[in-house]
Amino acid sequence: MAKTAGKKSVTRTGKASAKAPRRARQSAAKAAPPASQRVDFFKLVPKPRFVGKPVKRKEDVRLITGAGHYVDDLRLADMLHVEILRSPHAHARIVSMEVEEARKASGVVGVFAYKEISSLCGDVPLAHPGIPDLKVPHHPVLADGEVNFVGEPAAAVVAESRYAARDAVDLIRVEYEPLPAVVDPEKALAPDAPKVHKELADNLSFSWEVKGGDLDEAFKKADRIIQQRVRSQRLIPCALETRGVIAQYLTGEEQLTVWTSTQIPHILRTQLSGMLKLPESKVRVVAPEVGGGFGSKLNVYAEEGLLSALARLVAPRPVKWIETRRENMAATTHGRDQIGELSIAACADGTVLGVKHDCIADIGAYHQLFTAIIPTLTGLMLAGSYRFPAARTTLKGVFTNKMPTDAYRGAGRPEATFIIERIMDLVAAEFNLDPVEVRRKNFARKFPFSTPTGLAYDTGDYEKALNQALKLADYQGRRARQAKARDEGRLVGIGLSTYVEICSMGPSKGMAAGGWESATVRVSPTGSVEVLTGTCAHGQGQETVFAQITADVLGIEMDQVKVQRGDTGNVPWGVGTFGSRATAVGGTAVFEAARRVLEKMKKVAAAALGASAAQAARVQIKNGKFWAGKKSLSFAEVAFQAHRGLVIPEGETPGLEATYFFEPGNFTFPFGAHICQVEVDRDTGEVSIQGYWAVDDCGKPMNPLLIDGQVHGGIAQGLGQALYEEAVYDESGQLLTGTLMDYAVPKATHMPWLHCERTETPTDVNPLGVKGVGEAGTIGSTPAIVNAVIDALRPLGIKHLDMPLRPEKVWRAIKKAAAAP
Amino acid sequence: MKNFAYINAASEKAAIESMSDKALALAGGTNLLNLLKEYVLAPEALVNIKGIAGLNAIESFEGGLKIGANVTLSELLDHAEVRGRYPALHQALYDIGTPQIRNMSTLGGNLCARPHCWYYRYEYFDCKKRGGQGCAAIAGDNEFHAIFATDGPCVMIHPSSAGPALVVYGAKVKIAGPGGSRDAGIEEFFTLPAAAVARENVLKPNELVTHVLLPPPNGKSATYEVRHKESHDWPLAMASVALTMAGETAQEARICLGAVAPVPWRAAAAEAALKGKVVNETTAGEAAQKAAEGAKPLSGNKYKVQLVRTAVKRAILAAATGRRV
Predict the structure, then answer these.
(1) Which residues of B touch A747 (CB under 8 A)?
(2) Domain boundary among A662, A686, A707
């Protein structure tokens, strides 16, 4: 499917690495551990056996053979099943609800609505976004007299089987009084618009602004002001595994256990504790295998609170709910949905002086966990990889009668990257310049680089990635062939995107909650190694990466390492997996914990071998053994001695375990250059991708196979946004794209051959030098593809089209352009 | 989905005796099971017809082919005669779904598939086909709906991709019912919503398509499809064309459109325009213009008129040259 260049494509950047400590000192306020105390991974393990190597994923055997266990694979004794009655209206008052018939149906244990649940479970929570005057409506787990979007839970049936529960849902009689719905965020801001929440003054949930630099000066000095409206359409994340929850409350033990398909078991535990008014000590959250999330499981959902409350009502019987695909499309968070009005101050040589961006974010009917925060990331990342001195984003978060938006792969950065990369092409088109040259002209070149929006980019070399991508794609030759194709009347286009993104979330001061991550490395008396991580991989391959890191630090085989995640009863602390943070933040915690275990093992070995003080200071690991002088102990022997308790090194205690919380000093900022060639069918508007080339830089690569996997999957999702996907609500607020027959996710055959390479610019933010790559493909690809299509249409005078670039839209634009004088 | 009884029919007769408006025939299931899961259909029983002997063979028949209704699309695609002599059918089948879907889907199922109109498949909308009073598509988001025969009670497009090809080959459908077996011309098999809005063909609830009879092909043929996505997607519009050629002149032309009307839509004006003409870009383009005549697009699908023209022109040229355009 995709091709990745081998070793030769990887460019070493020894220079940048050597300079890193000095830079770290310069930004000392931002760096967590003082550089002098820090031990970098590659200094401790100069020749790693696993890190950096294309090691196959440990998790794949069980996942590929169907031997992994997702929520729906768990079947507990005496389990009951829950089905949810959902609103068929975008906005309506519940006049009455008649549940007796459902209650009497065969197999039904109970039917529950707001009044039965509200005393047990509070509102769906949100992370405090630090936005003043944020309006937060009442958001119960079951509708409280009013429904505000199609798919909102209104009642729940608990029954002996899923079939009985589902059939009983049809027996609940609800009388709704339909209320006017508003689905267009711009119309929602009109003074006479229907209000989504009657208790609020209007539909404006919040206003927010970020700005920096002298905009007046920029717009005064500009040769031209370019105006453009751009839209990042609403997307549906479509994780392969829909959501699902099992909850059980053991009355005697006073213990609630919730198995759920989540990216954030620890955050969920804290939030459920608040919703249910149970101390966290009595709440255990387990994320079994999670079949993809893409941000849509980075949340606290009504159903998670609801099932927990139901579990208490039917205790000690467990209750299970598995989301259908249609529920997933309608009632799991959506992504994107921003409209931006852009003003660009540009000079005739292609220099951009400043950008104004007035953004309306359609946040749907409620706040989910990060609903308000996501669009602010768009404002923060507006500068992209460029050094224009002035920027401003004003943001309005607007309620509509739709499913709330929240994180979706990239989460604010794809929107920002789409804007800034479209801007580069708009400027190029305006002054008839090569888009490559416009980018070169504007690249940030000195790092750390401060953006006008207040971020400090850690490290970067944008031109190097661009140059490598141009070479990989044979850009010059391709442009020449494009000119020839244009002469023949063909619509061939080449587009690029030189993105930068924000990863390894993050320093706690830049986050709504803690941005650290924890790890415990624990060695048993027989020498088996457990790594407990607070991250919660759901497809990324952290089980592999963390085993690579641990095995390299401890000098053992990867098979000896078992990575545990996802169970708050097992892993005491954690934040979770999102924002391309797991390796950079969680991996660093693993490294630091493993390093501490190693130090202790050296001391134990020295003590057990009766080493002199001089020998003890120079314990070496060779061939899997700890050597002090000429005597040695195996890894397992040292582990045993640490637990046997007969030789305890001075200042130490028995046992062999270390826990480390890593707090990153800054975000990291990976970057890259993507190039795409397309041809547009003039008669139908169909777009076919003829080639795709990507050079990504995610810092130090931990495992090239995992990076490729992330880049390929990311490009697929970015391609989906560019060409296919759109969540369509009709005027009444019904979701028309409610199944995978109607919502067009790309499939394997829609993917072009991907030519992927890398550059390597380590970060100084963490001792691994790693930046993160989970979202890069999604962020980089969408604008590259759209820019290619617009480039194809440029001879017709077309400068911009909104996504998705479906054939109809493209053909209409062609037709309109042909009709223009 | 609702619980249902599962009946294994060992013979045509047993199937027919079991079938009713509450007991539906199940073959590949790629269409029916989705509709059950979506609660669009909630039959009391499914009658499995896959085990019926004689419905899964492709046989030579009067110079053409007799194809059992249970033959899968993959089996048809792999069949040398289908590939070699019936390229319009082969291309139409090749573009359906994915290999997994084609391995399960049957030819009979393709002809009897229910519409994929998103209003039909969504319980919250009014739909005459589901027994409702109105049609949400007529005033709603209808870019994927019909542009021909749009004055009827339902503006669905027929989902069969094989249908147009079978029309241009003049196929017949063998139908078994309580009174025995009968043959229907393929064009008579499909019915417009005006005839009976709840169904898409002449089958009664206790009748079964058993075979498709393909006469020997009489010239060159091709199918061209326009899709949103390059594969794994429903066509936005398609055209199947069969030409009887004398040198470069089309003595006879049969042209049928798919995905633009509630039935496979015969383009008679386009056929007449091409008849007796030397087939080239110009004449193909003129015929394509005629193919779109009579289209009455809805509020959101005027684009399909253009797609009809493009598909017809490209299918004609593909048929005449033997190349995919």
Answers:
(1) 98, 229, 231-232
(2) A662
User: What single-letter DSSP state applies at residue B288?
Assistant: H
The answer to whether the CB atoms of A734 and B124 lie below 8 A apart is yes
> Using only C-alpha atoms, what is the Rg of chain A?
28
Note the pLDDT of residue B323: 78
Interface contact A730-B121, CB threshold 8 A: no
Does residue A172 sit in the same domain as residue A248? yes
In this complex, is the C-beta atom of B232 within 8 Å of any C-beta atom belonging to chain A? yes
What's the pLDDT score for residue A567? 98
DSSP H or E run through A230 = strand A224-235
Closest chain A CA to residue B37: A324
- Taking only Cα atoms into account, the Rg of chain B, rounded to an integer number of angstroms, comes to 19
Q: Do A484 and A526 belong together in one domain? A: no
Q: Tell me which residue of A33, A90, A59 sits closest to A540, measured CA to CA.
A: A59
- The answer to whether A106 contacts chain B (CB < 8 Å) is no
Our CA angle for B110, B114, B118, nearest 5°, is 125
Evaluate whether residue A352 is within a structural domain. Answer: no
pLDDT in tens, B165-186: 999 999 999 999 999 999 999 9
Task: Assess B299–A contact: CB distance below 8 Å, yes or no.
Answer: no
Residues A701 and A794 in one domain: yes
Q: Give the nearest partner residue to B3 out of A163, A724, A808, using CB atoms.
A: A163
Owning domain of residue A600: 33-55+516-662
Query: Nearest-CA residue of chain A relative to B144?
Result: A742
Interface of A with B in 238-277 (CB under 8 A): none
Residue A356 in any domain: the answer is no
> Inter-chain contact B306–A684, Cβ cutoff 8 Å?
yes
Same domain, A594 and A643: yes
Strand B172-177 versus strand B64-68 pairing type = unpaired
The last residue of one of the domains, among A662, A688, A717, is: A662
pLDDT tier for residue B233 given thresholds of 50, 70 and 90: confident
Residue A341 dihedral angles phi and psi, to the nearest 5°: -100, 120
Same domain, A680 and A722: yes
* Average pLDDT of the segment spanning A666-671: 97
pLDDT of A758-798, one tens digit each?
A: 999 999 999 999 999 999 999 999 999 999 999 999 999 99
Predicted pLDDT of residue A5: 36
In a shared domain, residues A584 and A485: no
Q: Is residue A375 part of a domain?
A: no
Q: How far is CA A124 from CA A28, A302, A527, A578, B247, in A?
A: 39, 6, 44, 20, 74
In one-letter notation, the amino acid at residue B144 is F
Inside any domain, residue A361? no
Q: Is the dihedral of CA A544, A549, A550, A551 positive or negative?
A: positive
How many distinct structural domains can be found in chain A? Answer: 3
Residue A776, sorted as left (phi over 0), alpha (psi -120 to 50) or beta, turns out to be alpha
Angstroms from A452 CA to nearest CA on chain B: 40
Alpha-carbon distance of A806 to A818, in angstroms, equals: 19
Among chain A residues, the shortest Cα distance to B3 is held by A163
* Chain A / chain B CB contacts < 8 angstroms: 73
- Tell whether the model's pLDDT for residue A14 goes beyond 90: no
